Amino acid sequence: MSVKLTDEEGGALMAAIVAHSPYRRSLLPMLPRITRIALANNQIRAALAAVSERSSFGATGVLAKRDLGPERPTLMAFLEYIYFASPSFLSSVGEADLGGSNDGR
Predict the structure, then answer these.
(1) Contact 35, 11 (CB under 8 A)
(2) In angstroms, how far apart are the furthest CA atoms of the chain?
(3) 63: helix, coil or strand?
(4) What's the count of helices (H) and strands (E) in the chain, helices before strands?
(5) What is the Cα gyration radius of the chain?
(6) How far is the C-alpha of 73 from the C-alpha of 78, rounded, in Å?
(7) Tell me, what's the pLDDT at 99?
(8) Model confidence pLDDT, tens digit, residues 10-45
């Protein structure tokens, strides 16, 4: 049986998953954008749907790490990628404006 994941359910689930990330402090301000990207990506949306189907998150609003199951590596890798590509991380390593320069530096 497959669960149809709505955008609202996906957003709530993504927020709960971000709360389990070691990068949550930096990711929380970007949550609306992260959610939009996650739900537009077939692999991440499928992983969210699998977690939703397996867990009782929809009924309880509580998500334990074990509820992430085999989708955990995929979801955590997604959040890690977002973190390391984020403006706050890039700024912290002196690479704040990568998009605006074409001078080869």
Answers:
(1) yes
(2) 54
(3) coil
(4) 7, 0
(5) 15
(6) 8
(7) 56
(8) 999 999 999 999 999 999 999 999 999 999 999 999
